[in-house]
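Suppose you are handed a protein chain with no further information: no name, no annotation, nothing but its sequence. What can you learn? This example shows the usual starting point.
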Amino acid sequence: MIKPLSAAIGSILLVSLFATSVLAQDAAAPSAGEAPKATKKKSDKPAEPTDLDQVIVTGTRTPKAVDEIPGAITVVNKEEIAHTLLVTEDATAVLARSVPGYAESSQAMSNTGETLRGRIPLRLFDGVPQGSPLREGTRNGTFTDMGIVGRVEVINGPSASEGIGAAGGIINYISKTPTKEGNETTITTRYQTQGKSDSGGWKTGVTFARKQGSYDVLLSGSYIDRGITYDGNGRRIGLNTSGSLADSTSSNLFAKLGYNFGENDDQRIQATFSKFKIQGKGDYVQVLGCRGPTDNPPCDVPRTNTSEKGHIFGSKDAFNDFKQYSLEYTNKNVLGGSLDINVYKADQAMRYLPENTEDKQDPLIAPLNTLYDQSEITAKKRGIRTSWTRPDFLVTGLELHTGVDVARDEAQQRLALTGRLWVPPMIYNSVAPYAQLSYDIGPLTISGGYRRESDRLTVDSYTTTYYRNRVFVQGGKLNYKENLRNIGGIWRIGDEWSVFASYSEGFTLPNIGIPLRNISTPGQSVSRIRDLEPIIYKNNEFGFNWRGDNGAFGATHYISKSPFGSSLAVDPHTTDFILSRAPVRIEGTEVTGEWRFNDAWKVNGIYSHITGRTAFWSADPAGRFGSGSLNKPLGVLDINPDKLAYSVTWNYSSRGDATLGATSLFGRHVSGHDVRAYDGATFSYDERTHGYTLWDLGVNYSLERYGKLSLGVENLLDKQYILSWSQLAGYQNYWAGRGRVTSLTYTITL
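A reasonable first move is to predict its three-dimensional structure. Written in C-alpha cells, the prediction is:
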C-alpha cells in the first residue's frame, strides 16, 4: 500500500509546488441526474440559457434539441460519469447504470455480451469509430480514460446516420472541452482495495485546461495499476480469457487543441490525439472451476474459476492498444449553413490470453493438446466525415443536413506465438452520401433521410489452420450497395409532454472474421460465402416523454427485425463463439424516470424488458429448404435479462452529497424447439439464468479550496453472484462477479 500512496502524494506535491493559487472546485456543477428543463425553441428569446443536457450532436453532427429528435435518446452527463468513477473505473459501467437497454458490464477488458437492445452498438470517440466490423473482437468498449469524457450521447436502436456497425444503436463518448478563461489543472488520485494484500489498485491523473481568447487546450495523462479481484466469498476471480481488468495497468495520453478565427469566430480548427493502452501484468494464471455433477469433468460442489500466482512459459501479456488522430474544421457561414469536415486515423491492436484449445493445435509445431497460442487482432481505420447543415432551406422551418462519409477499414487476426494467420487481411472501403430533412411546423417536427452505402470488401487468399483442414480459400471482392432510409415525427404537447414515432434502417457486417476462419471445406471462394452478406436492420419505435420542473418520465416500445440477421452460439467442440445467420426479431420496452423532491433529495430509475427470437437454421444455399420459423429464443449472449436500476441522491450539506444506487438483473427462463420438415432434424434450446441485485454507494465532500474527497463502494453488501452471460456454459467462462470494492478518491483543481 505504501508504494501507490507515495506515488499519489508525490504527484500532488509536485504540481502544488508550481501552483500559484488554489481555486474552489466544482462550485456550480449541477448534481447528477438533475431533472432537465424544457428546451427553448428558435422563436424564444435569445437571452434564455441553453440546457446542454438537452442538446445532442450524435447522428446530426450539429447541435439539435433532444425534443426535436423522434427516438429514445440518452445523454449521460459529466456528473453521472463522475459518480460511476467513484465506484469503478470500468469504462462501460456508466452505460449499464444509465442506459435502459444496455446489458450488464462484463467487468473485463472485453465487452462480450454487452449489447444495446440485444445488438452490438457502434461506439464512437469524438465521432471516430472504435473497433472494426470486419473482426469484432469485443474489445471496443475500453479505449480511453473515462476521466476525460465530458458526456456520452446514446441513440438507441439501429441507425445508419454514423456509418456501418450501429446494429443496436450509437454510443458517442465526447471528450471534455475547456470552458473557463485562464489555466486550470486538475489532479486526481485514487486508491481501491478489497481488503486483501494483492487486491489494491491506484490511479494518478493530471488534466490541464487552458482557454485564452480564440484558442483552447486540453492535455491529460493518467496511469492506473490494478490488483487481482475477489468475489463475495473472498475467492480470487479467474482471469477472463478475453482479457481481464484485474492484474493490469492502464496508461492514457490525450491532447486537444482548438483555434477559433474568422469574422465573429465563426470558423474553428481542432486537432485531437489520443493514446490508450491497457495491459495485463502476467502475475496470475487461471485455474478452472466446475459447474457441478453435469460438468466435464464433474464435481460434487460447484466452484467458479479462480486465479493463482504463475505464468505460462513463453506467453505474452494480453493488451488493448488504441491510438487515434483527428483534425476537424468547422465553418458556421458557408452558403448560409454550417460546414463540418473531420479527417481521422485510428489504429487498434488487441491480444488475448494463451489458450490450449482444439482450434489452436498443429502437430507440425507441437504434439496435439500441448500447444498454447494467443490470438491477436489488428485493425486500422482512415476516414473523412463531412456534413453541411442549412436551416430554413427553401422554406422557413425546413432544415437540410447533408454530406458524404468516406472510410477505409483494414483488419486481420493472427496466432501471435506461432505466427500463423487465422483471419486473412481484409480491406473495407466505403463511400456513403446522405441527406436528412427536418421540418418544424409549430409543435410538430417531421424528419426523414436517406443514406447510400457503396462499399467494397477485399479479402486476400489464404489457407486455414490445421483444425480447419488447412484448406485453401480463394480471395476476392464483394460489393455492398444498400439504400437506407428513416422517417419519424415528434409532437410537443404543451410545454411538458411529447410523443414520437419513427422508422429507421441500419447496416452492418456479420463479424466477417469468424466465418472466414471457420471454413473447412476445400474449393471455397470468398465471393460465394453466403455468411458474408450484410445485415440490414429495420426498427419501428414509438413512445412519449414528460419533462416538468421537478422531474421527467418517458417510455418507448420498439420492434427490430433483420431478415438475414446474426446471433451468437457456442461451438460444442471448441466452446468458442460461432456465428448463426438467420432471421432475427427483437422487441422491447424501456422506461426512464426521475424526480426531485426538493433541493436535498432526488430519485431516478430505469427499466428495460427485451425479448428476441431467431430460427434454428438458415436457408440452405443449395435451395433444399428455407430458413426456419422464429422458434429459437435469443439467449443471454444476445439479449440481456430484464433490468431495473435506481438511485437516490442526498445533498446533505452545501459541501457534500451521497448517492445510493442499485442495479437488479432479473432471473429468466427461455426455451424453444423445432423440427425441420426436409429431413426430420430436431432442434431445441433451453436456457435459465438467475438474477441478482447489487448496491453501490458514492459520497463526496468538498474541502473547498483544498479539493474534494470522495468515497466509493461497489457491491456494498458484498454479494456473491455469477455474471449473467457467465451462467451460460462456454469456454472457461465460469466467473463470479466482483465482491465489495472500496475506493478513496482525492481531487484538487489548481
